[in-house]
Predict the 3D structure of the following.
Amino acid sequence: MSGEDKESDTSVKIIDNEDPDERVLVLKSVPSRYDFESTLQNGTYTLETDLSNQNIVVFNNQVNGDWSVKASVVGNEITRVSDSTPYEVTSFKVNSFEIVGTGSDGIVAKAGAPDINKVGDISTKVTKVSIGFKDSANSLVPDDELTGKINYKLFDTPDAN
């Protein structure tokens, strides 16, 4: 008889990808910007700001796949917008992780312990950042604006090497 319908059951089982040649590791997003404000200081600035809805997101498709994200201040400086005068950044922290200076490894996110879900989109919340810089000549004045960039790099190792 024509017009008769039949159905086939369909299922999809997601399995771990253990082939290192098929690894998918992607740095999907980082915080969009960090904004600080300060009054004039006598040469040394240490500023902190709280954040909400800012995350470092990594996609990982292997249960046993280690990874880490390292952050750095581009050029280790911020510059005055009006005349491009550079100011050395002496400290920059993402959450409690120092990314500038001797002894800092710059790691701001990494794969969790083996018993923690390490696959799919893994999100690390960024809730607090701080910056330290010097204006040795005390050349900053009210309404000056300083800009810089924070670079994030994804590594397929737990120690960002």
